[in-house]
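Lab notebook, bench 4. The sequencing result for the construct came back, and we need a structural model before the next group meeting so we can plan mutations. Quick request posted to the team channel:

Model the 3D structure of this chain.
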Amino acid sequence: MAPTWVADGMWNAVTIQQSLVSAGDIFVSWYESFNWVSVRNYYGLPFVSIDDFSSNLTASPLWWLNDVWRIDPGWSGISANTSKVMVNFNDTTSTIELSMWFHITRIPEYFVGHGGLQSWLAGFDLTPVSTGALTAWEFHEDWNQNGWAYNLYFKAPAHLLSQQEDNYTFSIDVSSFYRGHAFNTSQVIDVNMPAGTEIKETSPSSMALQKGNTASFVKAPEDTYPTVFTVVSGPLSKSLGQIISEDASLWFLTPGGWAAIGSLLFLSFTGIRGRRIWNRNKLYHRLYKGMVSIYDMYSKDLLKFHQEMDNISRTIIRMLVEDKINDEQFEKLLKRRDDLLLRTQQ
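Done. Here's the predicted structure in token form:
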């Protein structure tokens, strides 16, 4: 959903790109497009012409960040000497395109004062993260008629990982303001645990997908935030190939057999890692309807029915392993398959 100040026609778009260029120095490239008349009237800007506005902003650019965007240049270490502004005006549409370039040199103050880091990371309690010692920072943010989107990658010292014997535990709290609320947000949170380990536990497990030493928490708009996100990893256990090969004869033709391998998959993986593939439902329904069609066509020809069901069973397990269907869909397909098999036996 577009923010109010975009939906009401004042702004058309805002794009912000930030990069860490050295310790204590984030370079910012800023672009915005807005309706000159609407913005001038809303903020009561004392400029009678575009040229007057452009000249003033070019000579003294920092007031725009402070007055319009509530970014305190002094607190954030933004200097006019290392800032530049360009203004272009479309007389036909009364639209201004404004580009700015500046440096943020007081990084912890900027994060605290602007509230950006906690907002961008949607509710994490970042007390254990040392934002004053960033080693990497790449941030891209877009506001337009389609809504708000951003990408953030950063590295900073933090105390989030502990070790007990061969097990590692990652834990990050959620800020109290977010706990138990949904906020209509979609997120994928990837947690990479130490190499040579695999995921043993996740919390909340209902939001977790995992593979190897990586756990992904997938939060849908209707999901509420937990109190804490936790991942535990430990020594490697049997591979999926080993589990499958040990009892392959039970997979396909008996309902109990498939249930057993499903349990083994669950115990081994607790869900397959991957970003939520939003078109999974289409594949799931195609597989579901496919099994019903096989039953309708071959329920009187048991040999052919088992051959076809054997083929679709292999396909369904492959789709799970390849992360093209999720655990819940896998279980529903399992139940549908078992039901059809029992029907033919009766």
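Confidence is low (pLDDT under 50) at residues 243-278.
Will bring this to the meeting.
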